[in-house]
Design goal:
single chain, mainly beta, 6-stranded antiparallel beta sheet, 4-stranded antiparallel beta sheet, 0% helix
Length: 112
Protein backbone atom coordinates (compact mmCIF):
# COMPACT_ATOMS: atom_id res chain seq x y z
CA UNK A 1 0.00 0.00 0.00
CA UNK A 2 1.35 3.38 -0.93
CA UNK A 3 0.45 6.74 0.47
CA UNK A 4 -0.81 8.05 3.76
CA UNK A 5 -4.51 7.43 3.22
CA UNK A 6 -6.20 4.08 2.78
CA UNK A 7 -9.75 4.09 1.42
CA UNK A 8 -12.34 1.35 0.88
CA UNK A 9 -10.97 0.76 -2.62
CA UNK A 10 -7.67 -0.34 -1.05
CA UNK A 11 -9.12 -2.79 1.51
CA UNK A 12 -8.45 -6.53 1.14
CA UNK A 13 -11.32 -8.67 2.48
CA UNK A 14 -11.49 -12.43 2.80
CA UNK A 15 -13.51 -15.07 4.63
CA UNK A 16 -11.22 -17.20 6.78
CA UNK A 17 -11.66 -20.97 7.11
CA UNK A 18 -13.43 -20.47 10.47
CA UNK A 19 -15.98 -18.14 8.78
CA UNK A 20 -14.61 -14.92 10.29
CA UNK A 21 -14.46 -12.04 7.80
CA UNK A 22 -11.07 -10.29 7.84
CA UNK A 23 -10.45 -6.94 6.14
CA UNK A 24 -6.93 -5.59 5.96
CA UNK A 25 -7.39 -1.87 6.64
CA UNK A 26 -3.81 -0.88 5.92
CA UNK A 27 -0.17 -1.49 6.65
CA UNK A 28 3.38 -0.25 6.46
CA UNK A 29 6.53 -2.32 7.06
CA UNK A 30 6.28 -2.29 10.84
CA UNK A 31 2.51 -1.94 11.43
CA UNK A 32 -0.74 -3.51 10.19
CA UNK A 33 -4.41 -3.03 11.09
CA UNK A 34 -7.07 -5.62 10.26
CA UNK A 35 -10.79 -5.66 11.12
CA UNK A 36 -12.41 -8.99 11.89
CA UNK A 37 -16.17 -9.58 12.02
CA UNK A 38 -17.36 -12.65 13.94
CA UNK A 39 -20.57 -14.59 14.51
CA UNK A 40 -21.41 -16.06 17.92
CA UNK A 41 -19.36 -19.17 18.60
CA UNK A 42 -16.74 -18.60 15.91
CA UNK A 43 -13.29 -19.32 17.27
CA UNK A 44 -9.82 -18.13 16.47
CA UNK A 45 -7.97 -21.23 17.66
CA UNK A 46 -5.07 -20.76 20.03
CA UNK A 47 -1.95 -20.07 17.97
CA UNK A 48 1.26 -18.05 18.10
CA UNK A 49 3.40 -16.09 15.65
CA UNK A 50 6.53 -13.92 15.71
CA UNK A 51 4.52 -10.67 15.54
CA UNK A 52 3.48 -8.59 18.54
CA UNK A 53 -0.25 -7.95 18.55
CA UNK A 54 -2.96 -5.86 20.16
CA UNK A 55 -6.63 -6.76 19.75
CA UNK A 56 -9.13 -3.95 20.35
CA UNK A 57 -12.82 -4.87 20.77
CA UNK A 58 -14.99 -2.53 18.72
CA UNK A 59 -18.34 -4.29 19.15
CA UNK A 60 -19.69 -7.32 21.00
CA UNK A 61 -17.97 -9.54 23.54
CA UNK A 62 -15.21 -12.11 23.26
CA UNK A 63 -13.50 -14.66 25.43
CA UNK A 64 -9.81 -13.92 24.98
CA UNK A 65 -7.16 -16.49 25.83
CA UNK A 66 -3.60 -15.25 26.25
CA UNK A 67 -1.07 -17.87 27.31
CA UNK A 68 -3.81 -19.92 28.98
CA UNK A 69 -5.35 -17.03 30.93
CA UNK A 70 -8.93 -16.30 29.85
CA UNK A 71 -10.92 -13.07 30.20
CA UNK A 72 -14.21 -11.74 28.80
CA UNK A 73 -13.67 -8.47 26.93
CA UNK A 74 -16.20 -5.98 25.57
CA UNK A 75 -16.22 -2.77 23.54
CA UNK A 76 -13.28 -0.49 24.24
CA UNK A 77 -11.24 -3.23 25.91
CA UNK A 78 -8.16 -4.92 24.50
CA UNK A 79 -5.41 -7.42 25.04
CA UNK A 80 -1.74 -7.42 24.09
CA UNK A 81 0.35 -10.39 22.99
CA UNK A 82 4.12 -10.55 22.87
CA UNK A 83 5.80 -12.45 20.04
CA UNK A 84 5.37 -16.24 20.11
CA UNK A 85 2.84 -16.23 22.98
CA UNK A 86 -0.16 -18.54 22.44
CA UNK A 87 -3.48 -16.69 22.13
CA UNK A 88 -7.00 -17.08 20.72
CA UNK A 89 -10.54 -15.67 20.74
CA UNK A 90 -14.12 -16.91 20.85
CA UNK A 91 -16.99 -14.59 19.85
CA UNK A 92 -19.80 -14.53 22.40
CA UNK A 93 -22.19 -12.49 20.21
CA UNK A 94 -23.13 -12.15 16.55
CA UNK A 95 -21.57 -9.35 14.51
CA UNK A 96 -18.79 -8.87 17.05
CA UNK A 97 -15.85 -6.84 15.75
CA UNK A 98 -12.18 -6.63 16.73
CA UNK A 99 -9.27 -4.72 15.31
CA UNK A 100 -6.05 -6.71 15.09
CA UNK A 101 -2.97 -4.51 15.21
CA UNK A 102 0.37 -6.16 14.40
CA UNK A 103 4.00 -5.18 14.47
CA UNK A 104 5.70 -5.87 12.19
CA UNK A 105 3.02 -6.19 9.52
CA UNK A 106 1.78 -9.70 8.60
CA UNK A 107 3.18 -10.40 5.14
CA UNK A 108 1.36 -13.75 5.21
CA UNK A 109 -1.99 -11.88 5.16
CA UNK A 110 -1.29 -9.99 1.92
CA UNK A 111 -2.78 -11.25 -1.32
CA UNK A 112 -0.20 -11.05 -4.07
Amino acid sequence: MNGKFITRDDFQTEVLENGVVRTIKGYIDDLMVAELIWKKGQEGAVHSHPHRQCDYVVKGTFEANVDGEKKILGPGECFYVEANVPHGLIALEDDAVVLDIFTPMREDFIKK
